[in-house]
Amino acid sequence: MGKLKVLSFLAFCFWLAACAAHQSESPLIEFQSNLQSLCGKSFEGRVTSTDPQDEDWRKEILSLGPVNCPDNQTTVLPLAVGIDESRIWTLRLQSEGEALDFRHAHTLKDGTPDPVSGYGGVATAQTSTALRAVFPVDEVSKNIFEENGLEASMTNIWSITIEPGRTMTYKLTREGRLFVAEFDLNKGR
Prior knowledge:
alpha+beta; Lipocalin
């Protein structure tokens, strides 16, 4: 009887360890938690890349926020470029934290949806960390780009890197293209 109790106790310990290991396996849950630490705050940023087509954005102050967290699975990041408040980034955990969907929403000046809206990609736990999520363009986005004559965007890869309490960096890369925007998390308002 004593051996049975010891074996039962050991089996319980292994089960607990397995559960804890499964929960910590997904860095995207931790990444989303880092993003959600920004909820309710706004941050200023700037374009730090030097591609010529970004000159207009480099002249503007970028404003991110106020960051909205309707639930622990979703983070909404409104983005303003100067006075243009037509962009929203939405990140949503999926598949029990094994995937993180990232969407860009755009509106036209009259407030109606831009035809090039709803594009993005899905980060996986295999290609991301608790501090950096990588979003290769998905098929839905490729269709949006193709329908709107944006073939160059068919190989987009977005990433978001967060250094808690320091910076958040948004990056778009593809062949011949690099766009980087950095936001100062020390000066949240």
